[in-house]
Fold this protein.
Amino acid sequence: MSSSTHFPSSATLLPPPPPSPLPMADRTKPRKWFLGVFLLLALSGAVSGAKVVKELPGYDGELPFYLETGYIGVGDMEESQLFYYFVESQRSPTLDPIILWLTGGPGCSVLSAFLYESGPIEFNYGGYNGTLPTFHLNPYTWTAGLSIIYVDAPVGTGFSYSTTAENYAINDYKSVDQTYEFLRKWLMNHPQYLENQLYVGGDSYSGIPLPMIVEKILKGNNAGVAPYLNLKGYVLGNPKTDDYIDVNSRVPFAHRMTLISDELYKDAKVACGGDYVTVNASNAECVTYIDEIDDMILEINLMQILEPICKTASSRPVESIKGIRRSMEEDYEGFLAAQANPAYWCRDYNYVLAGIWANNKDVRAALGVREGTKGVWTRCNSTLAYTKTVTSSIPYHKNLSSTALRALIYSGDHDLSVTHIGTQIWIHSLDLTVYTDWRPWFVDGQVAGYTVEYINDDFTLDYVTVKGAGHVAPEYKPKECYEMMDRWLATYPF
């Protein structure tokens, strides 16, 4: 099967490519926007209820880093309020880059990224006795040299809320509009960061809205929308990108990882013609082989194939979570219903601590969460009224590849939900030029993964695998992912 057969046409999913970004000489001079920014602030009154957090329940003493939380109103009459956590770079905040970070789901709180991936503190797990969880400093925090704006987007995620019920109905386009508006207003409220290099990053389902947000920023800059955003690139980890490619790649991945036999893979490939997603019910032979594959991987953890799969309560029918078409949300959801089993450890048990901590009234008070705006905080909001209106973000990546941006795409190579095989397929579809061939990269003298660099005129894309990591790579390989980000932001070779 030719992989290009199933790439969607950009003409059907996307308006014509945006005009070329502003010349580099203009893109590095945002000072001229300052007057406009202050006028906009004065006229709109778009100042959030920001709070500098100096102490957090669970951490002993004053925080040794700058943490700010708050809300930014978006949409008509600012009825939707997006909650954020901002951590300033602990090195040189006036010079270091700043990144807006999103998380997946859709509907998973960015507090998950803050506590389990890249933030400056992490939970103490040893000896936990059921009381309020405690923290220690994260030695591999990305904020060592990077300022991060973590935002609970779209509305209904984490501590974000709306004053009207209809605003909770969200789709990909509305989510993009909200996040773009949030970023503009946040920078208007924090003009001291307007000259810093700006990146947009995220993982998992963020692979759909994030390239759309990046394109929207470029269009806004070209149209003279204030403030000018000093965008330099974007970062995506194990990103959901194309409905067909992402799911279809699970079968060859399962074969490569010896989860299915050579014979079964070959038979299924012939019978199904390499298409394991749009299976015609009349093709009984293909259906039979797909069922066999489903049985082989049913008890495999989609997020990290080497880790135990958590047994969780689910109200959804078994058929909806079976095999290669199993949804990522099924693995995200249900962790609070998990029954502790002393026979083995399960990663989902770690997530219970976030629920206990975020639902503590003293924690909410310390974070500045507005009373009465959120009931029970959940790591992933399974009741979010979200409509997935975009089935592929490949056309957006294609458009962005004609700009002067930098892109970092990375894959935990043991992720079965969004496989490195599928990610490489859509990257190849961009028709970029290989600048540096596939090669290992190292941390502490050991192979940390593999990398290849692509270029297209002024555009560069670094693709990196993280050896042994699962779906959200920094959770599994924090040191390696810290080194990856630090080197990439410094334009230092892997």
